[in-house]
Design a protein that fits this description.
Four copies of one chain form a homotetramer. The first copy, chain A, has 148 residues and is mainly β. The first copy, chain A, has one helix and ten strands, in the order ββαββββββββ. In chain A, strands 4-10-9-6-7 form a five-stranded mixed beta sheet, with no helix packed on it. A three-stranded antiparallel beta sheet of chain A has the order 3-5-8, with no helix packed on it.
Chain lengths: 148, 148, 148, 148
């Protein structure tokens, strides 16, 4: 049984009360969701994995403000598959702590290979993140020099 | 065997040549990928489905330019599950042909319920799209009046 | 003055009450926001515009399930600029009603040119949408044949 | 003048050659783009800023696997504006190094306040990132306990 009383006197308040169904078979019952947490989801993966680590193709050195392409693919030798139940959700590109581009890839239709066109202000590390649906993201980095 | 010759004379050209591995077991071989296309992916779903149609909670009428909340959830009665191999990839909100907000949801950690804070210029149809990983998106719409 | 009473008896209810500040200079006051709605935001743009219409480079015909690249750029002759206050927010690729890839581009760092790697099930129209920050999205389409 | 020769013998190679126009007034000429890099874009901002730091509303303690809501807004006291040339591009939510939800917000139509519904496996820091178009992202974190 649900009993919700919501009283808002201030006209600038917006309220969202979300009540989930509570039937025994509710797909989102807490006990069931807790079982979904496998160790693969616990933290960003920075170790090398032949199937999941992104591969970055980019110049070693660029001129400040010049456009260049960065191609990120996922999987060494062959690409990570793009299946309904198992695919790469997105590929994101960072320069050190700053995100600079991100592509969301739809299962079945998109392969995990994308080319961005970027420019940099300072040198540092290009970081590519690729996140499959069955784990948290995998990261690879590559040093890049930026000439004045 | 691979033989690539790339000759670029114009310094403003950027080239990306992507060669996929061609071993017999290549996960992305064409024959295998073609088998991934099931009818569920062929077009946007606008019919009602108890498990996949988005549910829109929003006012019937708002004042032009006033902020209000729109809550979109997926699934009638109980929510669509958020499992590693089966989840809602994103929920997007449109006003007729114009996209106005989109949330990407990570499997296991995010339930397919999100509340956006939006304002409108003209009345029409709020449209919510929810896309699972095993089909193309499902759409629901709701009329909304915008008062001057 | 704000007076909020929230009473929830059902443990499965989650409530979010959002109260915005109400100072006279509040950046989100309704009157001010209404002034932000210019005609450019009212609907998806499908007419041709030299500066904003996406340009699609893709094959005219592909084999079902074969991977191929689609490059989408924005602007004819030269690219749309990527400035802090004026840039392309994202480029999205659809096959008729189905979204198949989307790249969010960060101002200053990303140029509005992206290459996706995709495969198709059936022929139809590739549609590219590019959305700047000062209007709703611009769309271009290109017919593509899919051979069995 | 541009002279591109591309010879690919391996049928599994896909090539994208992107040539930008080179007229003197090209909006993307290197010299002009370099001027767009202001110090605000150089790194993730973790200091407090009344206008840009995200505000996280979430429980201090939750049960493992139980769904709860997290509301993230931007700006203390009043919200960050949502104007065509100045707005929040996205709000992302992390649990330590793992991204768990992200909402892209469209200028003019969306205010930078979003509510996600999430569940956690382990305690740690909820981190909210909000990225305006005129700088890199701003981050705020909040400790959260997860009970078994």
């Amino acid at each position: 049984m649900s009993d919700v009383t919501l009283h808002v006197r201030n006209a600038a308040c917006a309220a969202a009360v979300l009540c989930f169904g509570l039937a025994g078979a509710d797909a989102l019952a807490a006990g069931e969701q807790a079982e979904q947490f496998t160790p693969e989801y616990l933290q960003l993966h920075t170790t090398y994995d032949a199937k999941h680590s992104p591969k970055i193709v980019a110049p070693d050195s660029v001129k400040r403000g010049d456009w260049f392409t960065v191609t990120v693919s996922v999987g060494a030798g062959s690409q990570h598959p793009s299946l309904g139940e198992h695919s790469i959700r997105y590929i994101a590109l960072y320069k050190d702590s700053v995100e600079i581009a991100r592509a969301y890839l739809h299962p079945v239709y998109s392969a995990p290979t994308v080319t961005f066109t970027v420019a940099l202000d300072e040198g540092g590390s290009l970081r590519a993140l690729a996140e499959p649906n069955h784990s948290s993201a995998w990261e690879t980095s590559k040093k890049i020099e930026v000439r004045p």
